[in-house]
Amino acid sequence: MNKPLPILLLLVTASCSQQADIPEPTRTAFDAVISEHLSDASDWPEFDIERANEILDLCDMTVLGGTVAQRAQRRLDRLSSDDIQHALLLIVETNKLDALLRRQAYAFLDAQDWRTDNRFIPRLVLRLKYEKDWPSNIIIAQTLARAGNLAGLEAVKSVLLNSDDKRISDLELAKTMAADFIATLNDYAIDFEANWQHLLKLIDNWNAVRGYDLVATEFSEKYQDELWHLVAQFRSQPLRPVDDARFVFIRLEQQAMTVLATAASDNNRYVRDHCLQTLTWMSSTSRVAYDFALADSLAILENDHFSSVRAIEYRGSLMDKEQAKFLWPFITKGNYEQRTAAADALLRCADLSATAIDALVINERFSPEAQCSLLLLRDELHGKALIPPTIPGLDTNELNRRLRWQQQRQNLVAN
């Protein structure tokens, strides 16, 4: 009964010896990056919905004309831009039942000439997630575009593509507003088809570079303060604030990525995780984050016990062949999770010789997902026709995701 024991001890000894050759991530000491920035950051004014309604009433009086409008305007002039923005945003965020009131608040926000007072952008972008009134979404898109953000154009596109759905309130009004808006984007052209094609080009360009040639978002101090308050939501245990922050960041212009890049070295591991993951989702559009800060800090993040895998994934999202030299060591010496992240990242970067891949034994020490990425890359480097590999335990959705990554990278190189 005891004879198998020496064999078992040999296996355990061999396993421990093999693991000793694999460097384990360390627990790195990071700085309180977010807290340091928030210590000097300004915040929104503190007042309730009653005060917000008073400010909305003043805005409403300014369009009446006469002495009433003049008095109302003088009172508004004594308020800060933060006061007015906060009041109008507070109304649309809290009044869920009165769509007409929300439209009115959005319209007054849109009518203001904020110039560099653009702190409202992240909060208004978030309204694209929660606003159910279609005409209101057109106003949101218009206001954001004037501030240099085109994230609302997808909502405009959806309105124009929608058939006459009787369940949607004021759909025809929304369509008319959308048609007028895309005409203004195309220098007030009267040809709807030309305006439509121009809209599609703007959306494609925004998704590719997160920038608007005609209007650059002013990276004002208050706007940066708002971004630091937003990234601080990544410290939340409840998921909704985290999801909201992600929703907003992936719809902001490239400059906003610098805040994520800096916060990726915060001492809160959840913040590091969410920052890196959000940047990864943005794919190559977040290159500005790498150039700004992450090029220097990724080596530290990759060797941190909690951040390693996310940092490796981020390298892959850059789809840059220069990243391969950083990724290959994790293929040969990393742990199970690091090897998977590195294999996927290599598939998205692809600057290795077929000889290097051939020398690698692609077996069960790699996850099914990692095997898939490495096999796809090996066949591509050999110039073989694409034949999706059959790997036990590999989910079809995971296979399709890696095929999509490979195609995205090939398209990027071709263009």
Mind explaining what this structure looks like?
The protein is mainly α and 415 residues long. The protein has 22 helices and no strands. The radius of gyration is 26 Å and the shape is globular.
Could you outline the blueprint of secondary structure elements for this entry?
Layout: H1 4-20, H2 33-38, H3 49-61, H4 66-77, H5 81-94, H6 99-111, H7 121-130, H8 134-146, H9 153-161, H10 171-185, H11 192-209, H12 221-231, H13 239-249, H14 257-263, H15 269-281, H16 287-302, H17 308-317, H18 324-333, H19 336-349, H20 354-358, H21 368-381, H22 396-414
Helix pairs in contact: 3-4, 3-5, 5-6, 6-8, 7-8, 7-13, 8-9, 8-10, 9-10, 10-11, 14-15, 14-16, 15-17, 17-19, 18-19, 19-21, 19-22, 21-22
Task: Please tag this protein with its features.
22 helices; 415 residues; mainly alpha; globular; disordered N terminus
How large is the share of residues in beta strands?
A: under 5%
Give unreliable regions as ranges: 1-22
Fraction of residues in helices?
55-70%
- SSE class: mainly alpha
SSE order, one letter for each helix or strand: HHHHHHHHHHHHHHHHHHHHHH
Shape: globular
Oligomeric nature of the chains: single chain
Terminal Cα span: 67 Å
Radius of gyration: 26 Å
Let me know the largest β-sheet. none
Number of DSSP strand runs: 0
Number of DSSP helical runs:
22
Give the integer mean of the pLDDT values.
90
